[in-house]
């Protein structure tokens, strides 16, 4: 017990110190530029705001946590692409810029199978401990968190690390376990399942070709004969992120790119998510319908009603889909979380994202939506809210994404504190409750 508690404490400290290591003073002293917050979906988790306690007169009665896996190594395809770009630079005879000298002795030894890095494991440990401290009043021996995960190894490991952190924070009094692993080769509300979904390649390739031109010219000038392409430049930027989270220190590769270039890198990730499973993808939001219908079932204590990617066998059993728990924790991937946000109506943009020019006022920013270990939390609460001279007692929800309370404009009667009556939330989710307006059938045309 003592060893596990120490690990959780170290994980929490480790996480805060690592994030602090990337703070770089920018143009505004009140809003510093932070390198890692421009890594899109490869950014380490960071809270967008300080957690706000439930409003006066409200008592939290149920919590649904949807969390992305922790920081990882690159997967096989991107890993090979990174290695190829590095090899081009190492094959050069002479560098014209001393900032590249470190490349001579650089060894690309990151794993390439998408496994969690140590920091990624620490993220989930710390998140589990945080969940216990924040919601421990909802926990008893007869009511411990119910935990599910999609079947990818990094997702399963993140879920189990979360349970360890929760258990350790409770001094091993409450010991949740990973109860359900949803196979990614079958119906799975925690992973993309739409066969005929489109790609974001056109949009991301367009932007990469635009913003990397100065980078390619600069690096090829500094390393004559390297013949780097726009794709190589992009892959070297991802190496900065992957090596940093793997070694818990700022990679030397990061310094090869300036602040403007990192902001452009972020925008590529924004486009990838927006046109991958977000609002810019015709069949993107429908992939989030199943999870939303499961969420509605939990909030209303009614059976799951879904015609998309839910596993009916699991969801119809009280053993594998109980409706009487106070804390639920589900572990997933970034693309699936984006689909869920989009299906629900979160982070809508006034206009589509332009692949040729970023909109500085956009709220669709991948590092703020789905960094490594991102989480969406849906808190259900009983509230006594005064409305004129009448006091109404009802059930409400509040949704937080990476600690930021969402305004829920799609919910009729939402309060200034982001409270949406449960029945109004259900009414707002017509896309989900209608089975995606027929879009799910288009996934298998």
UniProtKB/TrEMBL annotation:
Residues 1-23 form the signal peptide. InterPro entries: Acid_Pase_AS (IPR033379), His_Pase_clade-2 (IPR000560), His_PPase_superfam (IPR029033), Histidine_acid_Pase_euk (IPR016274). It catalyses: 1D-myo-inositol 1,2,5,6-tetrakisphosphate + H2O = 1D-myo-inositol 1,2,6-trisphosphate + phosphate; 1D-myo-inositol 1,2,4,5,6-pentakisphosphate + H2O = 1D-myo-inositol 1,2,5,6-tetrakisphosphate + phosphate; 1D-myo-inositol 1,2,6-trisphosphate + H2O = 1D-myo-inositol 1,2-bisphosphate + phosphate; 1D-myo-inositol 1,2-bisphosphate + H2O = 1D-myo-inositol 2-phosphate + phosphate. The keyword rRNA-binding does not apply. GO terms for cellular component: extracellular region. Keywords: Disulfide bond, Glycoprotein, Hydrolase, Secreted, Signal. SUPFAM superfamilies: Phosphoglycerate mutase-like. CDD domains: HP_HAP_like. Its main location: secreted. GO terms for molecular function: acid phosphatase activity; inositol hexakisphosphate 3-phosphatase activity. The active site is at residues 69, 334. It is found in: Secreted. This is Phytase A. It comes from Gymnopus androsaceus JB14.
């Amino acid at each position: 017990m003592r060893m596990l508690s120490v690990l959780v404490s170290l994980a929490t400290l480790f996480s805060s110190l690592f994030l602090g290591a990337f703070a770089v003073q920018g143009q505004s002293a009140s809003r510093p530029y932070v390198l890692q917050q421009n890594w899109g979906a490869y950014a380490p988790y960071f809270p967008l705001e300080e957690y706000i306690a439930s409003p006066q007169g409200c008592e939290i009665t149920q919590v649904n946590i949807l969390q992305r896996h922790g920081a990882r190594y690159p997967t096989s395809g991107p890993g090979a692409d990174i290695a190829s770009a590095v090899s081009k630079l190492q094959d050069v005879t002479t560098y014209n810029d001393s900032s590249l000298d470190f490349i001579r002795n650089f060894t690309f030894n990151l794993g390439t199978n998408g496994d969690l890095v140590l920091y990624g494991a620490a993220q989930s440990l710390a998140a589990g401990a945080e969940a216990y401290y924040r919601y421990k009043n909802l926990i008893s021996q007869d009511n411990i968190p119910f935990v599910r995960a999609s079947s990818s190894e990094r997702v399963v490991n993140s879920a189990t690390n979360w349970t360890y952190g929760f258990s350790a924070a409770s001094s091993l009094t409450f010991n949740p376990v990973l109860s359900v692993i949803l196979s990614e080769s079958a119906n799975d509300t925690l992973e993309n399942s739409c066969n005929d979904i489109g790609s974001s390649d056109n949009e991301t390739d367009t932007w990469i070709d635009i913003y990397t031109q100065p980078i390619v010219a600069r690096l090829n000038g500094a390393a004559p004969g390297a013949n780097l392409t726009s794709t190589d430049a992009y892959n070297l930027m991802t190496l900065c992120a992957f090596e940093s989270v793997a070694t818990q220190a700022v990679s030397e590769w990061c310094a090869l790119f300036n602040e403007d270039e990192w902001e452009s890198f972020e925008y590529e990730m924004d486009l990838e998510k927006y046109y991958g499973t977000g609002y810019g993808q015709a069949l993107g939001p429908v992939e989030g319908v199943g999870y939303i219908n499961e969420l509605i079932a939990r909030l209303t204590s009614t059976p799951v009603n879904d015609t998309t990617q839910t596993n009916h066998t699991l969801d119809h059993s009280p053993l594998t889909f109980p409706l009487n728990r106070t804390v639920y924790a589900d572990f997933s991937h970034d693309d699936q979380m984006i689909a869920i946000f989009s299906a629900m109506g979160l982070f809508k943009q006034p206009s589509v994202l332009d692949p040729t020019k970023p909109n500085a006022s956009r709220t669709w920013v991948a590092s703020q939506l789905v960094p490594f270990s991102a989480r969406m939390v849906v808190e259900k609460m009983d509230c006594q809210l005064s409305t004129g001279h009448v006091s109404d007692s009802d059930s409400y929800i509040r949704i937080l994404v990476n600690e930021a309370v969402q305004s829920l404009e799609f919910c009729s009667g939402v309060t200034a504190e982001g409270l949406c009556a449960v029945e109004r939330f259900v009414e707002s989710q017509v896309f989900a409750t209608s089975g995606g307006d027929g879009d799910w059938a288009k996934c298998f045309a």
